[in-house]
Amino acid sequence: MSGFSGAVKLGDLDDFINPSQSCVVALNGDKLDLGAAELAVPEGGEVLLRKRGDPSAASTPPTPVVRGAPLPSTPGEAVKVSLSDCLACSGCVTSAETVLLEAQSGEAFKRALREASEPDAPAFSAFVAEGGETRRKIRAVVVTVAPQSRASLARVAGLDAPEAAQRLTGFLKSIGVARVFDAAAARDVSLLETGEEFCARFAEARANDEANVQNPAHPLPVLSSACPGFVCYAEKTLGSAILKHVSAVKSPQAVMGTVVKSRVAAALGVAPDQLFHASVMPCFDKKLEASRSDFSREADASSRATQETDCVLTTGEVAQLIADAAEASGETLAGERETFADAASRARAGAAALARAPRAALDGWLACAGTPSFAVTDAMDTGSGGGGASGSAGDAALLYGPVVPGGGGGSGGYLDWTFRRAAFKLFGVSVTGPLPFTTPRPKNPDLKEVRLEVGGETVLRFAAAYGFRNIQNVVRRCKAGGSRRGGGYDFVEIMACPSGCLNGGGQPPPPPAFEPGFRLRADAPLPRTLGVSTTAKQLVDELEELYHTGGIRSTGTDAADRFVARDPSQNDDALALYRDFVGGDPGSARAKALWHTRYHDRSAEAALTAGGTAAAAANLKISSDW
Questions:
Q1: What digits encode the pLDDT tens for the residues 338-367?
Q2: Full-model pTM
Q3: Pair 286, 343 in one domain
Q4: N or C: which terminus of the chain carries fewer CB neighbours within 10 A?
Q5: Where among 503, 523, 551 does a domain terminate?
Q6: Are residues 367 and 274 in the same domain?
């Protein structure tokens, strides 16, 4: 639970939730017809849920919460609730709910690899029984890697970004992955759509102000939607008053899911439901995003219904996979040590082992790599770790970074690109170089502002707000009134994690100066410090340099010749996708049908307004001793 952002947590949880609608799963495991079901709210409005089979609950028969819903006949029989069921409820994610994330784990990824490795022969069934249902067997596994995760692994392994991409591709393909893509191309698609959406909303807001329209459908500021932690918080807590501000553009992970389950599946010659798509992300909240029903592909003549992203692995979970593979091959991690004090230290050792993984050519299409394809030979793979790639592979392997090196932060550059696009399209101003950010409060670096002035008048005011405290301040501004009238923001890049995605909960933390369990010898001199060897701020600064330039100059991992700054409108992969797949320009109706999504008001106020069962459930308190 500790890995989720503060936006989806309720502090230090004890499984005490206040739902605003009845659970969509009855106590017998069947889905409820909420239109017909009647919720029985006990006197006092509180129910204690005990784990079935618990001796402490044996003397008192449990009371059904929903009338007419029979209890399981066998004590201890589990009621299965899917993650999508809980995401459709208005309660925030609880520690009990994290059990539902088993489908979003390294073990699920390994099962998919084993299944895909089985030969297509009569002895092997083309169908698999799972959860009482039958599905078609997985025939291929592809992986999408976020640039933030790549930067984190590269830093721990002492590699530059291009070499880390090659070695991560080599490792994943060595365990059975068919294709490894970089999420940067999908990020550029998301940026292009966000820029066009903002310009349209800004023009609409100006027209509404001139006509004195009250309660417009799409008020300013526009709030970026790439952070699933904020989206979950907005849907379950803030409701429609804030949801109408949220950008409708899909995140890079969701964009890539749409592409993989359509174009990539067709290229590999498999049906969408036979292709397992995993993404490597810096954030646990992305597991929630992948489970949303909005990001699923409906059944058709060639495929059953399937999620567009089947599994999300955090950076730390991938590091654990590398550690598992290294140990399975007889390699000792971290010198002579055979045990680790905690999972974080083992993940760091696994990430360091990436430097010894084999290299492989980057997948060119939509991999954000240079189009030349090349072969990786044993002579090119020195296994030394550190430094740049060798030979022709290093020359051909290009990675593309944000439009301005060192600008735009480490969360995708939504503010940076949208500001430049809006300045040019709306006011004819070309913005070059890093944006002149200001920090309203010096002690709060996670809130930054930038303005565009034309003729001495401020015409655009953007902000980046990271962390839950800043999110709450932005929400208060939104509820206070429109941006154009109130002098507030026009666009806000929102991320639930302080310092943004590079500091996501799924990233390996900085190592301590001394591992847990360290004991100082009696005759040893006292150490100068008992703190951490690298502070969180130092770590984020180094990751941001890697993210923007492909290397860290202070450590000798300079990749300036193989890491090219390029704005989204110059991404040939993204432009080819619009030409060949979308059949329209960014912001067109066809692009919106593919790259835009919708949100759902699951707040308590919405449940009370709905009345009936939902309103009754809003007054029900459930506590658990699970």
A1: 555 567 778 888 888 899 999 998 886 554
A2: 0.79
A3: yes
A4: C
A5: 503
A6: yes
